[in-house]
Design a protein that fits this description.
- The complex is a heterodimer.
- In chain A, about 20% of the residues lie in helices and about 30% in strands.
- By secondary structure, chain A is α+β, with helices and mostly antiparallel strands.
- In chain A, the strands form three sheets. In chain A, strands 1, 8, 9, 10, 11, 12, 13, 14 and 15 form a nine-stranded mixed sheet that branches.
- In chain A, helix 1 crosses helix 7 and helix 2 runs antiparallel to helix 7.
- Chain A is globular and about 60 Å long.
- Chain A starts with a strand and ends in a 5-residue tail after the last helix.
- The model of chain A has no long low-confidence stretch (mean pLDDT about 90).
- Chain B has two domains: about 110 residues, 3-layer Sandwich (Rieske Iron-sulfur Protein); about 170 residues, Alpha-D-Glucose-1,6-Bisphosphate, Chain A, domain 4.
- Chain B contains four helices and 19 strands.
- In chain B, strand 13 and strand 14 form a beta hairpin.
- Classes of the chains: A alpha+beta, B mainly beta.
């Protein structure tokens, strides 16, 4: 049987998750993710290795970012290409020189979209299992895309029951003895912890990871940093190796998502093929996800009279919707403040012990 | 789409118990499959959970359809949700937990759908005609039907037959259908149509006023049947028209040219239409088609209200 446990959370007037079930349902069902544009956030625009002397182009909500390195190695993030002599407009997101605030951390170049005066290093999300100075080998890094809007990608991610069906050939099917889902949130993050007892072993662990058993104990954590559209996907498997994925979903446009992932498998023995194959699974898994989220995406572009149906397993996804809508509402009212600290070490929250 | 109209959205052989089939009725996507008893089922191709297409899922041994996204499983007849696999154990779901079902009728090798599940079924077609196919055409449904009236050669080919620009009978309304009869020639060398005093063939075109489902009957000058076909154009997404067709060649055909019709495929329904020719095709036979459609609709409206 499925058990839903939620730790009691302090209920304040500021909690965006209302305790009124009708109001909660109303918000859940007003979900039009294409309309969301959250600013005053750091976005992981590129792997550090991808930025060199020649400018590379990125986008957040169609807003152009050109990234390159100066001779001293510092990264520049500009609104226009240095060769673009015709660029006449400048947004409010850059300084007088057309430059965005930019930071390099965890092996990524992070660009700030929002009021430059509000850019602060403490708004970079905590990613405990990525080295702060970067340096992961290239085989652990890659780029994939989702043919849908970024919030749908993340709603897809935080409801891991989807993996039992569309990724069954990679991570195993729905067969298990017991499944428990816990959900935590604050104003800037949502965290879902899924515990599975005697779940069928992930095929990729059988084929490449040397796991011989038929079942394994699984604890999967998805933690989403709402504004940055970036997620931690951390899985503990017994028997098997832990999976440490950073899963940013950069909204390049309102209906297309870029994912520069980092799958840190340095915890896996160098002689184990799983160390090299697991990061490559992203290419297959992302296409599987896109096969569902791509046709799903246009169906959320317009107001819809019919309400989505939900099951108890959708609690995390429903709360994700409400939290995103709440942030958007606050920003529409001119409130861009971070009420919770996203850079505080979240190791304990996700159950990461450094191994 | 009008509620109580039956549309031939698939040929029988296109619908299986192995893999769901996605079809359109205008902008309405629909999933078709056969249940454990071989009965065709049709639901809106949209899981009410997270709006993913059900046609990307699978058909279970029980005959139910399972969404490929989170495994929600639906009964084909009612559309009712019958299982969420990750919610272990027996559960009952409220009646509102359902996908939208469609009325289904299968006969004559066509699968027809109606948005009204309680609509009375259409008349049976009899045996399925042996030749069949499906063509997807980048032309709007009404334009497709009108072009069939004005110049069928843009849309179809009948082996060895040339359609002339002349009619034996212009478009009229007969028993709720739009009918005309076009003069045809054999494709062999002969006087051009404008200078021919006789036409050895005629093609009767009889179309349903709403669906455009059309019976084609090719007769020789002694009124012997040479070919009978049914074309079922159905509006699909983005203004595309999907045409399912079935045909039979008469086994008894006299004369060399009619016998040659039996070599290879006697009927072709074009996927690609000559846009340049279509652009300059002037409305002729179809020019009063809309007036006739409106007349038929006006006559049937009060009957519907009585019914």
């Amino acid at each position: 049987m499925l058990d839903i446990h939620e730790k009691p959370e302090p209920t304040t007037h500021d909690d965006p998750i209302t305790s009124d079930p009708r109001e909660f349902a109303s918000r859940v069902n007003s979900w039009m993710p294409h309309d969301l544009m959250l600013i005053d956030a750091w976005f992981p625009l590129a792997h550090s290795f991808a930025v060199g002397k020649k400018p590379v182009r990125r986008a957040v909500y169609s807003q152009p970012f050109f990234l390159w390195r100066e001779a001293n190695g510092n990264v520049i993030a500009a609104e226009t290409h240095p060769n673009d002599m015709l660029a006449a407009t400048k947004s409010e997101y850059t300084d007088a020189d057309g430059r965005y605030p930019v930071i390099e951390k965890y092996g990524y170049v992070w660009g700030w979209l929002g009021n430059p005066d509000n850019a602060a290093p403490e708004h970079i999300p905590s990613l405990p299992y990525l080295p702060e100075d970067g340096g992961l080998p290239l085989h652990m890094l890659g780029t994939v895309r989702f043919d849908c809007c970024a919030p749908l990608s993340l709603e897809n991610l935080i409801d891991l029951t989807h993996a039992d069906f569309i990724h069954a050939d990679v991570v195993g099917d729905e067969k298990m003895d017991k499944e428990t889902v816990e959900v935590f949130h604050d104003s800037e993050t949502i965290t879902m912890v899924r515990t599975c007892v005697n779940k069928s072993v992930a095929p990729i662990m059988k084929v490449f990871g040397g796991v011989r058993d038929d079942v394994q104990q699984v604890r999967q954590v998805i933690r989403i940093y709402l504004r940055s559209h970036a997620a931690i996907a951390y899985g503990r498997f017994s028997p098997g190796d832990n999976v440490q994925l950073f899963h940013p979903c950069v909204p390049e446009t309102r209906d297309r998502t870029r994912l520069d992932y980092a799958m840190n498998t340095s915890n896996v023995k160098k002689t184990n093929p799983f160390r090299y194959m697991m990061p490559k699974a992203s290419y297959k898994v992302s296409r599987q996800d896109s096969s569902m989220t791509s046709p799903q995406s246009p169906r959320y572009m317009q107001p819809e009279k019919r309400k989505d149906l939900h099951s108890p397993l959708d609690e995390a996804g429903q709360k994700y919707r409400v939290l995103m809508l709440s942030l958007a509402e606050r920003q529409a009212n001119g409130d861009y403040a971070y009420r919770d600290n996203v850079s505080a070490d979240c190791s304990e929250i996700i159950g990461y012990d450094g191994k | 789409m009008t509620e109580a109209v039956w549309w031939a959205v698939a040929r029988s052989e296109e619908v299986s118990a192995d893999k769901p089939l996605n079809v359109d009725l205008g902008d309405q996507p629909i999933v078709l499959w056969r249940d454990a008893n071989g009965v065709v089922r049709a639901l809106e191709d949209r899981c009410p959970h997270r709006r993913a297409p059900l046609s990307l899922g699978c058909i279970l041994g029980s005959g139910a359809i399972q969404c490929g996204y989170h495994g929600w499983t639906y009964d084909g007849e009612t559309g009712r949700l019958i299982n969420i696999p990750n919610l272990k154990g027996e559960r009952k779901y409220p009646p509102v937990y359902k996908a939208k079902p469609f009325g289904v009728h299968e006969s004559g090798g066509f699968v027809r759908l109606c948005a009204d599940v309680k609509a009375p079924p259409p008349a049976d077609d009899g045996d399925a005609l042996p030749l069949s196919g499906t063509a997807t055409v980048a032309l709007q449904h009404e334009q497709y039907v009108d072009a069939l009236f004005d110049d069928p050669s843009l849309l179809i080919s009948i082996k060895g037959v040339r359609f002339s620009p002349y009619l034996f009978a212009e478009l009229t309304e007969q028993e709720g259908q739009l009918m005309l009869e076009r003069s045809c020639q054999w494709a062999s060398p002969h006087w051009p149509a404008p200078f021919s005093s006789e036409f050895p063939l005629s093609l009767r075109i009889a179309s349903d006023a709403v669906t455009g489902e059309t019976d084609l009957t090719l007769l020789d000058d002694e009124f012997n049947l040479l070919l009978h076909a049914t074309l079922a154009p159905v509006p699909a997404a983005r203004g595309v028209t999907q045409v399912r067709w079935r045909a039979v060649l008469s086994p008894e055909r006299s004369g060399l040219q009619s016998k040659i019709m039996g070599v290879g495929t006697p009927l072709k329904v074009h996927e690609n239409i000559d846009g340049a020719a279509l652009r300059v095709l002037k409305p002729s036979a179809s020019i009063h088609a809309n007036d006739l459609r409106e007349k038929i609709a006006a006559r049937s409206a009060p009957q519907d209200e009585v019914a």
